[in-house]
């Protein structure tokens, strides 16, 4: 039984018809990094937002970060299903992501605009992943990326709708 604790993860070949899994795993890792950083950023804005729209923004961001938390697991599990390793270091998440931190806490309206822009960047990368998955005969990743893109596009729209003055 003690040998069971000595198993070290390894990559494995996949024989499902998906061609060249490494670029797909790389694209999924990029999207996972964006999801994880945007999840954290959304959560911090959820904690720190103030003002007359506190309740609306607080609840919307909670719904969004909960969705992204589940999605991070789905994305990582898809990478593993392709026989590759999911990112395992925060440095990898930070270097892969197009989502950036802000220097200081913005106003409630700025929070919404910043998050909306981040969601659009995430959706853009997901659109590229949809194309890549199609080229590599991977309908599962294609469907996952399409579903995630729809979430990010809707999130951007909702955040912008709140931020209108």
Write a structural description.
- This protein is globular.
- The protein is built from 5 helices and no strands.
- The mean pLDDT is 95.
- By secondary structure, it is an all-alpha fold.
Major sheet size, sense and barrel closure: none
Mean pLDDT: 95
Radius of gyration: 18 Å
Helix content: over 70%
Q: Tell me the span between the first and last alpha carbons.
A: 63 Å
Helix and strand content put the structural class at mainly alpha
Q: What fraction of the residues are assigned to beta strands by DSSP?
A: under 5%
Number of strands: 0
How many DSSP helices?
Answer: 5
Q: Which ranges are low-confidence, i.e. pLDDT below 50, for 5 or more consecutive residues? A: none
Q: How are the secondary structure elements laid out?
A:
Layout lengths: L20 H28 L5 H28 L8 H7 L11 H28 L3 H25 L2
Brief characterization of the structure:
By secondary structure, the protein is an all-alpha fold. It has five helices and no strands. It has helices at residues 21-48, 54-81, 90-96, 108-135, 139-163.
Q: Keywords, please?
A:
single chain; 165 residues; mainly alpha; 0% strand
């Amino acid at each position: 039984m003690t040998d069971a604790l000595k198993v070290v993860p390894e990559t494995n070949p996949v024989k499902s018809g998906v061609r060249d899994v490494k670029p797909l795993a790389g694209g999924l890792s990029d999207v996972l990094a964006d999801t994880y950083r945007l999840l954290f950023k959304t959560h911090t804005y959820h904690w720190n937002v103030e003002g007359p729209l506190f309740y609306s923004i607080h609840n919307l961001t909670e719904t969004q970060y909960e969705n992204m938390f589940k999605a991070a697991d789905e994305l990582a599990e898809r990478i593993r299903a392709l026989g590759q390793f999911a990112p395992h270091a925060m440095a990898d998440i930070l270097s892969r992501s197009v989502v950036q931190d802000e220097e200081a806490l913005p106003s409630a309206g700025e929070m919404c605009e910043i998050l909306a822009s981040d969601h659009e960047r995430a959706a853009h990368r997901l659109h590229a992943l949809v194309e890549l998955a199609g080229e590599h005969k991977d309908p599962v990743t294609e469907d996952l990326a399409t579903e995630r893109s729809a979430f990010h596009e809707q999130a951007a729209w909702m955040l912008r709708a709140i931020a209108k003055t």
